[in-house]
Write the structure tokens for this entry.
Amino acid sequence: MTRFRSLATLETKLTRCRECERLVEWREEVARVKRAAFADQDYWARPVPGFGDPQARLLIVGLAPAAHGANRTGRMFTGDRSGDWLYRALHETGFANQAESVARGDGLALRNAYVTSMVKCAPPDNKPTTAERDACFHWIDAELTLLRNVRVLVALGNFGWDGALRLLRDRGHAAARKPKFGHGAEVVIGPYTLLGSYHPSQQNTFTGRLTRPMLRDVFTRAAELVSSAETSRR
């Protein structure tokens, strides 16, 4: 497990990472070619660190930055439709001060929540390889180590679910049998509670597989669990 003194120190080191050649080439190519709608913008085109409250009790685990979302803006789930869904749900359940997330410096702040991803660079077709996933794992592992108050995790999609289980297993907390991913799945593992949600990707939201009430319900449950964790510490 990589050790860092603070989230700020971790972010400085992370954003300089060039370990995975394929991902470096892709994130920088996307920034050169750009999407027509963003032709006049400078892309971030680096690994994207987590974002949120350092005292968070809720950790939200996604897959990776979107090529023209976080890879452009430099903040997780910012500047794309997945982020529109996620931050609206967080706002509705008290974790965010506003429902919109369009750019760094737009005033968005999270309370008691921290958003991150298993892979820190945008992958081609949104599909990191197993080797890339494993090479990147130490970053999120270090984030959870620094987020000492986290007791609830929401995994967005099966990729995030498997990653969250690995995070907890590496801390000595493992279920007797691997819990099955599903929307609304809930499992207690050691001192943590893991919740599952379909990823707010366009593939899921456009087809109706994930609706706004479904996503809000997951974070309503997360808020209940966070409140319970806070009460137990008093």
Q: What stands out?
A: The longest helix spans residues 212-232. The chain has one domain: 7-232.
